[in-house]
Amino acid sequence: MKEIIYLIGQISVDKKDSYEWRKNIRRCFATKSDWDIIDPCNNGFNQAVLANAGGDPKRLKVYKTTGVELLVPKDKSYVERSTMGICNMNHYDAKKPVIGTMFELAWYYQNPEKTVIGIFDGNPEEDVNCNHPFVKASVDVWVKDEWAAAELAMHFYQDVFVEEPTFEEARMLMDRIEKCSVGSVKKSK
Protein backbone atom coordinates (compact mmCIF):
# COMPACT_ATOMS: atom_id res chain seq x y z
CA MET A 1 0.00 0.00 0.00
CA LYS A 2 1.25 3.46 -0.83
CA GLU A 3 1.48 5.79 2.17
CA ILE A 4 0.81 9.50 1.65
CA ILE A 5 2.13 11.91 4.27
CA TYR A 6 0.86 15.47 4.52
CA LEU A 7 3.30 17.89 6.20
CA ILE A 8 1.45 20.33 8.43
CA GLY A 9 2.70 23.14 10.61
CA GLN A 10 3.38 26.84 10.57
CA ILE A 11 4.64 28.36 7.32
CA SER A 12 6.39 31.70 7.57
CA VAL A 13 8.35 33.28 4.74
CA ASP A 14 10.39 35.10 7.37
CA LYS A 15 11.47 31.88 9.14
CA LYS A 16 13.59 29.48 7.08
CA ASP A 17 13.15 26.65 9.62
CA SER A 18 9.44 26.46 8.76
CA TYR A 19 10.55 25.31 5.28
CA GLU A 20 13.68 23.33 6.13
CA TRP A 21 12.02 20.57 8.17
CA ARG A 22 9.70 19.88 5.22
CA LYS A 23 12.65 19.64 2.82
CA ASN A 24 14.32 17.19 5.19
CA ILE A 25 11.22 14.96 5.25
CA ARG A 26 11.06 15.02 1.45
CA ARG A 27 14.75 14.01 1.34
CA CYS A 28 14.11 11.08 3.72
CA PHE A 29 11.43 9.65 1.43
CA ALA A 30 12.90 10.70 -1.94
CA THR A 31 13.96 7.16 -2.91
CA LYS A 32 10.89 5.40 -1.48
CA SER A 33 8.51 4.67 -4.36
CA ASP A 34 5.77 3.45 -2.02
CA TRP A 35 5.59 6.82 -0.20
CA ASP A 36 4.29 10.18 -1.39
CA ILE A 37 4.84 13.45 0.45
CA ILE A 38 2.38 16.34 0.24
CA ASP A 39 4.37 19.47 1.03
CA PRO A 40 2.24 22.63 0.99
CA CYS A 41 5.42 24.69 0.55
CA ASN A 42 6.41 22.89 -2.64
CA ASN A 43 3.96 24.47 -5.10
CA GLY A 44 3.79 27.51 -7.33
CA PHE A 45 1.59 29.56 -5.01
CA ASN A 46 3.86 29.15 -2.01
CA GLN A 47 7.02 29.74 -4.01
CA ALA A 48 5.54 33.00 -5.38
CA VAL A 49 4.60 34.11 -1.86
CA LEU A 50 8.10 33.23 -0.70
CA ALA A 51 9.63 35.32 -3.49
CA ASN A 52 7.36 38.35 -2.97
CA ALA A 53 6.16 38.50 0.62
CA GLY A 54 9.28 38.51 2.77
CA GLY A 55 9.17 41.23 5.42
CA ASP A 56 5.35 41.43 5.35
CA PRO A 57 4.62 40.91 9.09
CA LYS A 58 0.95 41.93 8.82
CA ARG A 59 0.47 39.60 5.82
CA LEU A 60 -1.10 42.44 3.82
CA LYS A 61 0.41 41.23 0.54
CA VAL A 62 -0.21 37.50 0.84
CA TYR A 63 -3.82 37.82 1.99
CA LYS A 64 -4.55 39.89 -1.14
CA THR A 65 -2.98 37.37 -3.52
CA THR A 66 -5.36 36.21 -6.24
CA GLY A 67 -6.68 32.78 -5.31
CA VAL A 68 -5.74 32.91 -1.62
CA GLU A 69 -9.32 31.75 -0.91
CA LEU A 70 -8.30 28.36 -2.29
CA LEU A 71 -5.96 27.66 0.66
CA VAL A 72 -8.62 26.19 2.95
CA PRO A 73 -10.21 23.76 0.45
CA LYS A 74 -6.74 22.89 -0.92
CA ASP A 75 -5.41 22.03 2.53
CA LYS A 76 -8.56 20.07 3.41
CA SER A 77 -8.09 18.04 0.22
CA TYR A 78 -4.51 17.32 1.29
CA VAL A 79 -5.77 15.86 4.58
CA GLU A 80 -8.37 13.79 2.72
CA ARG A 81 -5.79 12.44 0.21
CA SER A 82 -3.23 11.57 2.88
CA THR A 83 -2.96 8.38 4.88
CA MET A 84 -1.14 10.18 7.70
CA GLY A 85 0.14 13.56 8.76
CA ILE A 86 3.35 14.80 10.27
CA CYS A 87 2.53 17.92 12.27
CA ASN A 88 5.32 20.25 13.37
CA MET A 89 4.00 22.21 16.34
CA ASN A 90 7.11 24.38 16.74
CA HIS A 91 6.00 28.01 16.58
CA TYR A 92 8.72 29.57 14.42
CA ASP A 93 7.15 33.01 13.94
CA ALA A 94 5.52 34.45 17.07
CA LYS A 95 3.89 37.17 14.92
CA LYS A 96 1.96 34.61 12.88
CA PRO A 97 -0.83 32.39 14.26
CA VAL A 98 -1.08 28.66 13.59
CA ILE A 99 -4.72 28.76 12.54
CA GLY A 100 -4.26 26.55 9.46
CA THR A 101 -2.47 23.91 11.52
CA MET A 102 -5.35 23.80 13.99
CA PHE A 103 -7.88 23.37 11.17
CA GLU A 104 -5.80 20.53 9.72
CA LEU A 105 -5.57 18.80 13.09
CA ALA A 106 -9.35 19.08 13.42
CA TRP A 107 -9.77 17.45 10.00
CA TYR A 108 -7.46 14.63 11.09
CA TYR A 109 -9.49 14.27 14.28
CA GLN A 110 -12.53 13.69 12.05
CA ASN A 111 -10.57 10.88 10.36
CA PRO A 112 -9.31 8.75 13.27
CA GLU A 113 -8.05 6.03 10.90
CA LYS A 114 -5.28 8.46 9.88
CA THR A 115 -2.19 8.69 12.06
CA VAL A 116 -0.69 12.03 13.11
CA ILE A 117 2.93 12.17 14.26
CA GLY A 118 3.62 15.38 16.16
CA ILE A 119 6.99 17.14 16.18
CA PHE A 120 7.95 19.44 19.03
CA ASP A 121 11.42 20.48 20.17
CA GLY A 122 10.71 20.36 23.89
CA ASN A 123 8.19 18.77 26.20
CA PRO A 124 4.77 18.85 24.49
CA GLU A 125 3.09 18.44 27.89
CA GLU A 126 4.51 21.81 28.94
CA ASP A 127 3.65 23.74 25.77
CA VAL A 128 0.42 25.74 25.70
CA ASN A 129 -0.44 24.65 22.14
CA CYS A 130 0.72 21.01 22.23
CA ASN A 131 -0.95 20.39 25.58
CA HIS A 132 -4.31 21.77 24.42
CA PRO A 133 -7.02 19.08 24.53
CA PHE A 134 -7.83 19.55 20.82
CA VAL A 135 -4.20 18.99 19.82
CA LYS A 136 -3.77 16.06 22.21
CA ALA A 137 -6.88 14.41 20.77
CA SER A 138 -5.49 14.68 17.23
CA VAL A 139 -1.80 13.81 17.63
CA ASP A 140 -1.09 10.10 18.18
CA VAL A 141 2.58 10.30 19.18
CA TRP A 142 5.21 12.99 19.78
CA VAL A 143 8.83 13.06 18.59
CA LYS A 144 11.59 15.67 18.86
CA ASP A 145 12.33 16.38 15.17
CA GLU A 146 11.60 15.56 11.55
CA TRP A 147 14.25 12.83 11.44
CA ALA A 148 12.58 10.93 14.28
CA ALA A 149 9.16 11.43 12.64
CA ALA A 150 10.37 9.96 9.34
CA GLU A 151 12.06 7.06 11.11
CA LEU A 152 8.93 6.28 13.13
CA ALA A 153 6.67 6.41 10.06
CA MET A 154 8.97 4.07 8.15
CA HIS A 155 9.32 1.68 11.10
CA PHE A 156 5.58 1.24 11.53
CA TYR A 157 4.28 1.69 7.98
CA GLN A 158 7.01 0.60 5.55
CA ASP A 159 6.00 -2.60 3.79
CA VAL A 160 8.71 -5.20 4.33
CA PHE A 161 7.56 -7.49 1.55
CA VAL A 162 6.88 -5.49 -1.56
CA GLU A 163 6.86 -8.37 -4.04
CA GLU A 164 3.68 -10.23 -4.87
CA PRO A 165 3.53 -13.87 -3.75
CA THR A 166 3.82 -16.48 -6.46
CA PHE A 167 0.75 -18.51 -7.36
CA GLU A 168 2.13 -21.47 -5.41
CA GLU A 169 2.87 -19.32 -2.30
CA ALA A 170 -0.65 -17.87 -2.41
CA ARG A 171 -2.20 -21.34 -2.73
CA MET A 172 -0.14 -22.66 0.21
CA LEU A 173 -1.16 -19.66 2.34
CA MET A 174 -4.86 -20.22 1.54
CA ASP A 175 -4.51 -23.90 2.51
CA ARG A 176 -2.87 -22.96 5.83
CA ILE A 177 -5.58 -20.45 6.67
CA GLU A 178 -8.31 -23.00 5.98
CA LYS A 179 -6.56 -25.68 8.09
CA CYS A 180 -6.09 -23.32 11.04
CA SER A 181 -9.69 -22.08 10.94
CA VAL A 182 -8.36 -18.56 11.37
CA GLY A 183 -10.65 -17.20 8.71
CA SER A 184 -12.24 -18.10 5.48
CA VAL A 185 -10.76 -17.50 2.09
CA LYS A 186 -13.01 -17.22 -0.92
CA LYS A 187 -11.52 -19.12 -3.78
CA SER A 188 -11.81 -17.37 -7.09
CA LYS A 189 -13.61 -19.20 -9.88
Keywords:
5-stranded parallel β-sheet; alpha/beta; 5 strands; 189 residues
Characterization of the model:
The chain is of the alpha/beta class and 189 residues long. It has one domain (3-161): Response regulator (Rossmann fold, 3-Layer(aba) Sandwich), CATH 3.40.50. The chain has seven helices and five strands; from the N terminus they run E-H-E-H-H-E-H-E-H-E-H-H. The chain has a five-stranded parallel sheet with strand order 2-1-3-4-5, with helices on both faces. Helix 3 runs parallel beside helix 4 (99-109). The longest helix is centred in the C-terminal third of the chain and has 14 residues, at 167-180. The relative contact order is 0.15. Residues 181-189 have low confidence and may be disordered.
In short:
The protein has helices at residues 17-29, 44-52, 71-81, 99-109, 133-138, 146-157, 167-180; strands at 3-9, 35-38, 84-88, 115-119, 141-143. It is of the alpha/beta class. It has one domain: Rossmann fold.
